[in-house]
Amino acid sequence: MARVDISTVKRWARQGVGPRPRRLGPRVIRYDRSEVMAYLNQGEAAGRRSA
Predict the structure, then answer these.
(1) Of 9, 11, 35, 48, which has fewest CB within 10 angstroms of its CB?
(2) In 1-51, at which residue ranges do the beta strands (DSSP E only) sit?
(3) How far is C-alpha 29 from the geometric centre of its chain's CA atoms?
(4) What CA–CA distance (Å, rounded) separates 29 from 41?
(5) How many CB atoms lie within 10 A of CB 15?
(6) Contact, 47 vs 41, CB < 8 A?
């Protein structure tokens, strides 16, 4: 959805950037789709304002 490498998503999660990840198990992390879409739309809106 964000068109970035998985390592970027992992780094963002460690840094607290973006929507909050949810741990479902020791190696399973998921994101709420609506939170991800809201975050991505927020970025698009910011890009339109600065253009």
Answers:
(1) 48
(2) 22-23, 29-30
(3) 12
(4) 22
(5) 8
(6) no
Report pTM: 0.70
Q: What angle do CA 35, 13, 45 make, to 5 degrees?
A: 45
> Residue 20 has which token pair?
């909050």
Q: For each of the chain's 51 residues, which pLDDT tens digit applies?
A: 888 999 999 999 999 999 999 999 999 999 999 999 999 998 767 655 555
Q: Answer for the pair 12, 18: CB distance below 8 angstroms, yes or no.
A: yes
Residue with tokens 């998985």: 6
